[in-house]
Structure formats: structure tokens, C-alpha cells
């Protein structure tokens, strides 16, 4: 939709999309996503080892979640937003994310805003914003994902990240 927009200015939150569709368009700019204060650490009982909060309309996402269900007790929610999503993420040791379009999606920023451990797909330009195994944990394929989640569910996920992400990175 934004590609066909006649807006005077266009800001694109993902660098891959910006370079693919907008870099040669006048008055279009790459500006990484951020998150508002709705997504923040709250005191919540840890109920889930792994949670996925998001929609289930993409085939690759559904396939990955089905794979995880074979190996883990994973909480899946496709109809919780904002405050509810924040609470559910705060009740989870690990937040799982997949990037179906191979782009950095908003869930990365929302999950990091909660202060919980995010395990997300390794995508281009993510390392320009965050450091793997410092701010989050990335995976490259199904085998890598299962291996990392098996390890992280054995150790206390909150102790895995060496550096507590400063909220200024995502706000």
C-alpha cells in the first residue's frame, strides 16, 4: 500500500523492504521500527517456557510452529494485542519469532521491549540494530532453532543473555 501512496514523505521500518521498493523514490527514508511503552517489563508469573504471539496466516510460520509443537510445550496466541500481548510475553521465559518475509518485523521490538529472551530468525540487517547472544538469540534454520531452544529451555532463559537490553534500543 505505501508503495503506491502519493504521500509527501514515506518512512519504511525495515531496511530490506526499503532497499527493495523505496530507495530510488524521492522523499522516502529508512527509519527502523521502535516500540512504545505498552511493551515493557511487568511483574508476571512465569507460565510458559516458550510463547508465540502473532497471526497464523503465513504457511512458513504455521510450519515452524507445528515443528515446535512436536518438541516443546509452546503457548500460541493469535488474537492478543497491546496490553494483553505484553502480559503474555512477560509470562514467558522465551518469546519465539519467525520472519516470514525475511524482514525485521515489529515483534522483534515488542518482545525486546518486555525484557524477555527473544529467539528470532536471522535476517539481513538485524545485526545493524542488535547483537546476537547479547540482545537476542538468532537461528538460521529448523535444526538450529530446535537445538537452541532445547538448550535455552534447560538453562534459565533469563540468565542466558549477558546484557540486559537497555530500552533505549527499542523505544
Reconstruct the topology from this structure:
Elements: E1 10-12, H1 15-22, E2 28-30, E3 48-53, H2 59-71, E4 74-77, H3 82-90, E5 92-97, H4 106-114, E6 117-121, E7 137-139, H5 142-154, H6 157-160
Parallel strand pairs: 1-2, 3-4, 3-5, 5-6, 6-7
Walk me through what this model shows.
The protein is 33% helix and 18% strand. The protein is built from six helices and seven strands; from the N terminus they run E-H-E-E-H-E-H-E-H-E-E-H-H. The protein has helices spanning 15-22, 59-71, 82-90, 106-114, 142-154, 157-160; strands spanning 10-12, 28-30, 48-53, 74-77, 92-97, 117-121, 137-139. By secondary structure, it is α/β, with parallel strands linked by helices.
List the defining traits of the structure above:
171 residues, alpha/beta, two-stranded parallel ribbon
How far from one another are the termini? 25 Å
Class computed from helices, strands and strand pairing: alpha/beta
Topology pattern, helix = H, strand = E: EHEEHEHEHEEHH
What would you report as the Rg, rounded to the nearest angstrom?
Answer: 16 Å
Mean pLDDT: 88
> What does the largest sheet look like?
5 strands, parallel
Biggest β-sheet: strands ordered side by side in the sheet = 4-3-5-6-7
Enumerate how many helices there are, as a single number: 6
**Silhouette:** globular
Helix content: 25-40%
What is the tally of beta strands?
A: 7
Poorly predicted tracts of residues: none
Strand portion: 15-25%
Short description:
With 171 residues, the chain is of the alpha/beta class.
Amino acid at each position: 500500500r505505501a508503495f503506491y501512496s502519493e504521500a509527501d514523505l514515506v518512512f519504511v521500518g525495515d531496511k530490506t523492504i526499503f532497499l527493495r521498493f523505496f530507495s530510488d523514490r524521492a522523499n522516502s527514508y529508512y527509519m527502523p521500527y521502535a516500540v512504545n511503552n505498552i511493551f515493557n517489563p511487568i511483574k508476571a508469573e512465569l507460565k510458559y517456557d516458550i510463547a508465540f504471539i502473532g497471526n497464523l496466516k503465513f504457511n512458513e510460520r504455521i510450519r515452524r510452529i507445528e515443528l515446535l509443537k512436536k518438541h516443546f510445550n509452546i503457548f500460541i496466541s493469535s488474537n492478543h494485542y497491546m496490553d494483553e500481548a505484553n502480559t503474555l510475553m512477560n509470562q514467558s521465559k522465551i518469546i519465539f519469532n519467525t520472519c516470514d518475509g525475511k524482514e525485521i518485523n515489529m515483534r522483534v521490538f515488542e518482545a525486546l521491549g518486555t525484557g524477555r529472551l527473544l529467539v528470532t530468525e536471522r535476517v539481513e540487517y538485524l545485526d545493524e540494530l542488535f547483537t546476537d547472544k547479547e540482545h537476542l538469540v538468532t537461528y538460521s534454520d529448523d535444526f538450529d532453532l530446535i537445538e537452541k531452544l532445547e538448550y535455552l529451555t534447560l538453562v534459565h532463559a533469563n540468565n542466558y543473555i549477558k546484557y540486559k537490553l537497555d530500552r533505549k534500543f527499542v523505544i
